C-alpha cells in the first residue's frame, strides 16, 4: 500500500471523512513529522520518523496532519494553537509534537580527564580556554 492510500485509510477509519489529495514522503524534513499545504491540500511526511519509531507512532503523526487538513476544509480553526484543532486532535489521539530523531551523529563528544564527565556539543570548543564544569579538569575531544 502506498502512502496516499494509507492516509486515505486512516482518514476514513479515524475521522469518518475522505482524504482527496496526495500524500508524499519528504526526506528533507528534519524536526517535524509532516506538513499540510492549504494551497493545494497535499501532505508531506518525514520518512525518518516512520523508520525510527514504527507504524504506531507514524499513524499518530498522520492523524495530526489530517486534523489540519479536515479542519481547514471545514473552515474551522485548523492551526496548531486553535481550540478546534486541539479538541479534534485529542478526540482522534494524534501526537501534538513529533518525537525527537535518534540521529546523534552530528554531535562532538568531549570528556573531562579527571572526573570522566561527558559533554556533547554541536560546535567545537577551544580546549585551552574551557574546563570541566564539575571539577575544572582538562577536556579532551573523543569523537568528531
How would you characterize this protein structure?
- Strand 4 and strand 5 form a beta hairpin.
- The chain has 3 helices and 6 strands; from the N terminus they run αβββααβββ.
- Strands 1-3-2 form a 3-stranded mixed sheet, covered by helices on one side.
- The mean pLDDT is 90.
- Helix 1 crosses helix 2 and helix 2 crosses helix 3.
- By secondary structure, the protein is of the alpha+beta class.
- It starts with a helix and ends with a strand.
- Gyration radius (Cα, Å) is 21 Å
| Number of DSSP-assigned strands | 6
Q: Main beta sheet: strand number and arrangement?
A: 3 strands, mixed
Mean pLDDT: 90
Uncertain residue segments: none
Short description:
The protein has 144 residues and is of the alpha+beta class.
Secondary-structure map with pairings?
Blueprint: H1 3-15, E1 23-25, E2 34-36, E3 43-45, H2 47-73, H3 83-92, E4 108-112, E5 118-121, E6 139-143
Parallel strand pairs: 1-3
Antiparallel strand pairs: 2-3, 4-5, 4-6
Give short descriptive properties of this protein.
single chain; 144 residues; alpha+beta; 35% helix
Amino acid at each position: 500500500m502506498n502512502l496516499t492510500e494509507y492516509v486515505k485509510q486512516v482518514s476514513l477509519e479515524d475521522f469518518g471523512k475522505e482524504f482527496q489529495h496526495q500524500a508524499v514522503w519528504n526526506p528533507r524534513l528534519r524536526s517535524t513529522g509532516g506538513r499540510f499545504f492549504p494551497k493545494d491540500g497535499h501532505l508531506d511526511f518525514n520518512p525518518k520518523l516512520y523508520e525510527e519509531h514504527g507504524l504506531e507512532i507514524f499513524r499518530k503523526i498522520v492523524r495530526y496532519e489530517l486534523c489540519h487538513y479536515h479542519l481547514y476544509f471545514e473552515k474551522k480553526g485548523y492551526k496548531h494553537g486553535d481550540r478546534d484543532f486541539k479538541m479534534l486532535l485529542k478526540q482522534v489521539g494524534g501526537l501534538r509534537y513529533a518525537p525527537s530523531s535518534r540521529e546523534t551523529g552530528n554531535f562532538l563528544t568531549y570528556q573531562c580527564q579527571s572526573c570522566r564527565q561527558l559533554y556533547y556539543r554541536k560546535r567545537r570548543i577551544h580546549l585551552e580556554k574551557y574546563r570541566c564544569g564539575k571539577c575544572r579538569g582538562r577536556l579532551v575531544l573523543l569523537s568528531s
